[in-house]
Amino acid sequence: NLFVISLRGAGEDGQLGLGDLKDQAEVCEVKALETENVISVFSGSRNSLAICKDGRVSFSSSLSYGFVLIS
Predict the structure, then answer these.
(1) Which terminus, N or C, of the chain has the lesser number of Cβ atoms within 10 Å?
(2) Which of 29, 67, 26, 28 is closest to 50 using CA atoms?
(3) What is the pLDDT along the chain (71 residues), one digit of tens a residue?
């Protein structure tokens, strides 16, 4: 990545993609995406989405506990 993907906020439904249900009061790096070539990131109250340069999409939502990469 050309940049570090960091976040903070409510995580009670797994929407932060950190692999747990904890809230993050302090900014932390999303380790699951550090080896991906992410070109764009979108975030909402219940989901996060990252688009990779090769066209793959990675997302985390209230239905998952970590980022899911779709080819």
Answers:
(1) C
(2) 67
(3) 566 788 888 888 777 778 888 888 998 888 888 888 889 888 877 778 889 999 888 877 776 555 666 65
Encoding tokens for residue 15? 């929407």
Between vectors from CA 68 to CA 60 and to CA 40, what angle results, nearest 5°? 65
Name residue, tokens 């940049």.
3
Q: Is the pTM of this model over 0.85?
A: no
- Which residue in this structure is represented by tokens 């976040």? 7
Distances (CA, A) of 45 to 2, 16, 40, 49: 25, 9, 17, 12
